[in-house]
Amino acid sequence: MKFVDIKFLLSVHSIKQLPEPLYPEIAFAGRSNVGKSSLMNTLVGRKSLVKVSGRPGKTQGLNFFQLGETAYLVDLPGYGFAKVSRGMQDKWQSLITSYLESRTSLCCVVVIMDIRHGAKQQDTQLISWLKQHNINYLPVYTKADKLSGNQRHKHAAALDAGHTIKSDQRILFSAKNGMGKDELERVLASFTGIG
């Protein structure tokens, strides 16, 4: 599965706006500033298809991207930041929860975490919630290039333990040098059933 021939489809702010579930969907979730946009851009081989921002809370809806006639990629709003009002956070949370619970075409949620930081409660809660709802998820530890090999191994092991994940269940990724990109493509293809 190659992530080419991709275009922005629409930004959804209420469940009624969701597109027809024509294709398998892969959703991307993570705390603000963990490198979600950079990961998605690397995956599709484009510099700025998904807007990268230094300002937390930039993604304010469920942003759908159509991958040819094969799949939708869905960029979810980041979580765990203080720059957005509590009311706005609650609104996003409700929209995301409704989407994750009801979307039959959802194949996998890519849970993105910065490898340099320890296990965060919100990531643990999301992973537990996905497990409880039998929703496929794939943990991806980003910014792996920022650590030496030894540090990378140590930090990844700490995150694995913090989220009760086995090392063969997650991917180490770097948008800077492309580490993990081929593996990520392969695993996502297996979730969608697309070769």
Class in CATH? Alpha Beta
Per DSSP, the total helix count is 5
Q: Can you count the beta strands?
A: 7
Question: Mind telling me the CATH superfamily name?
Answer: P-loop containing nucleotide triphosphate hydrolases
Overall radius of gyration: 16 Å
Residues in β-strands, percent:
15-25%
Domain unit count: 1
In CATH terms, what is the fold-level topology?
Rossmann fold
Question: What class would the helix/strand composition place it in?
Answer: alpha/beta
**Average pLDDT:** 89
Main sheet: strands, sense, barrel: 7 strands, mixed
**Cα shape:** globular
How is this structure best described in words?
The radius of gyration is 16 Å and the shape is globular. Strand 6 (about 135-140), helix 4 and strand 7 form a beta-alpha-beta unit. The model has no long low-confidence stretch (mean pLDDT about 90). The longest helix has 17 residues, at about 85-100. It has one domain (about 5-190): 3-Layer(aba) Sandwich (Rossmann fold). Helix content is about 35%, strand content about 20%. It has five helices and seven strands; from the N terminus they run E-E-H-E-E-H-E-H-E-H-E-H. The protein has helices at about 35-45, 85-100, 120-130, 150-160, 180-190; strands spanning about 5-10, 25-30, 60-65, 70-75, 105-115, 135-140, 170. A seven-stranded mixed sheet has the order 1-3-4-2-5-6-7, sandwiched between helices. It starts with 5 loop residues before the first strand and ends with a helix. The protein is an alpha/beta fold and about 200 residues long.
